[in-house]
């Protein structure tokens, strides 16, 4: 396990270097001069002398390869640059908003699991009957209902009409319920169908028949043998969803004014704050790579049939 982990960590180095190079290149392909944009945001008249002085301060007047190495050196020291709009370090801005996104992501995953797991298992255990039909209806609504529309419905009925939850913002524990349910319900449909199909496949395996022949209780067979193996495909999909949630669910965070990094990235895009966009993309790339590694390790722990080579 340790050897495999070290090999995967070494494999991550060229991947992250490639991502950093692409991120740096995209920064230089964007329209406009970063030095001029920074001066305009600060309210300074962008004269040629001021632009040249700012480019020198930012290190933009050297060869492109030297700019990349200087930028990469700063990134390795957690220096993602200074935001044009707030004049604060980008890394600090992202870390200030990351806990809010993590809270929303965790609550969204919990909502998705609470919806999908019982419906998926019930659909597999009672195919063609009421639990299966209910699971199909919920899955259909989940995959066909746009997130922004569900968000507006929840705000209208849950916040405006019934006044049970805050309308927007992060104001106590109740404020996370509506955006978390919006994201969780949007993910639940795929998990319902995936759990159903995987569990039906596992229940037909010989070792399940052998367990029943030994006289084991049905609930022990389901929870201890069938469900553990049936959840492996869902675990892979869960890793993708976690990466997307931590990347910031832009639409939901914007509608609910949730102070996460998704809303922060949207504000940076509209404000042409390229330094923030660059730092956001790089941070999310690292998060995705680390989550994929964690999912692979969980597969090894849950399925002893997987062998390391």
From TrEMBL:
InterPro entries: BPD_transp_1_N, MetI-like, MetI-like_sf, Opp2B
Membrane topology: Multi-pass membrane protein
Keyword vocabulary terms for this entry: Cell membrane, Ion transport, Membrane, Nickel, Nickel transport, Transmembrane, Transmembrane helix, Transport
Lineage: superkingdom: Bacteria
Location of this chain's protein in the cell: Cell membrane
Any matching Pfam family: BPD_transp_1_N
Domain ABC transmembrane type-1 residues, every copy: 98-299
Chief localization: membrane
Transmembrane segments: 12-30, 102-126, 138-160, 172-192, 230-252, 280-302
Subunit structure: The complex is composed of two ATP-binding proteins (NikD and NikE), two transmembrane proteins (NikB and NikC) and a solute-binding protein (NikA).
Family from the record: Belongs to the binding-protein-dependent transport system permease family. OppBC subfamily.
Protein name, UniProt field: Nickel import system permease protein NikB
